[in-house]
Every structure is written in C-alpha cells, then in structure tokens.
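thread: overnight batch results

M.L. [08:02]
morning all. the overnight job finished for the chain we discussed friday. pasting input first so we're all looking at the same thing
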Amino acid sequence: MKTRIALAAAIPFLLAACGDEPTSVDPTDTEAMAELANNMVKPQAGQYEVASELIEFEVPGMPEEQAKMVRGMMEGGFSETTQYCLSEEEAEKGFENSIREMQSNGGECDYKKFAASGDTLDAEMTCKGPDGSVANMTMAGSISETEQDITMTMETTVPQMPGGEMNMKLRMKSTRVGECDA
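M.L. [08:03]
and the structure it wrote out:
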C-alpha cells in the first residue's frame, strides 16, 4: 500500500511540458529540470481520484503459488481508488519545487531521462531503497489540467526476495472530481 500511495503522489510531479516541439533536458541538471517543470501544464486545484490497474506482475524465481499470492495482494492494493486534495497553493506552484525536492532527496531517485511535448511525458528514473532495493522505472502518458493517465513500468531488484527481482507494469489515472472536501 505504501508503494501505491507513493506512486499516486508522484504522478503529478512527473508530468508533461507545454509546447509543440519535444523538450528533453539533461536529467542530471536540476536547474534545467526545474525550468522545464516551471513550464509544465499546471493542474487545477481540487479533489482528485486516483484509479490504478496492475497490468503485469512477475517475480522470477519465486515459487508459483507464492507469486500468485503476492500478485493477488498487489492487485487488491492497486484496485482501490484513492483521493487527494490539491490546494490552490500547491496547484499554483506547479511542479518545479517537486522536481527540485526529488533531485535533492539524498540521491535516492535519479532521473535518467526526462522529456515532454504538448500533453505527453516520456521519463525514466532509478530509485534506491534503504533495504538495498533498486527500481528502474519508465513513465509514459498524457496529461491535462484535470487529468493524468500514466503507464509505469518498474523493474526492481530486491535482495530479500526469492529470485531477487520483481517486475510490474501499472496504469494510474488521476482525475479531478470536484472541489476539495472541507
């Protein structure tokens, strides 16, 4: 469930820039990424609903029955819709501060690619967990002021897991459903 919440929270920070020509920046240049983020479509403030779908899931090396059980738990966690409120202040700030925070967060996540065009996104990042896990993620999708539809593929190395790796593909759709609950 923690992974699902983290992914849902990350979606608005990984969105596309406005413009007709594809824009790609050096993913190690925090200032360039912040500049691109500053030019991104700004989301509308309001209440958002996040629906997720687990498309693919595999744990090579894990016994089949155990893998089915883990997949079932993952499907259950991702099938629940969640909601969050994006305040006027957060919407006005856009994504620049979020990009800066992700880049300076102790080096736990590093972008390998960050490109955007019009209402589309093409990004790749690697995140390292405190348990020694390493997740390589690609994100592709579309956005507007009121909706994000992102497909994320994750290839994760997990030393404590039988087989040592877990791979999944999921789709997360965030839709503005109204004003924030008071």
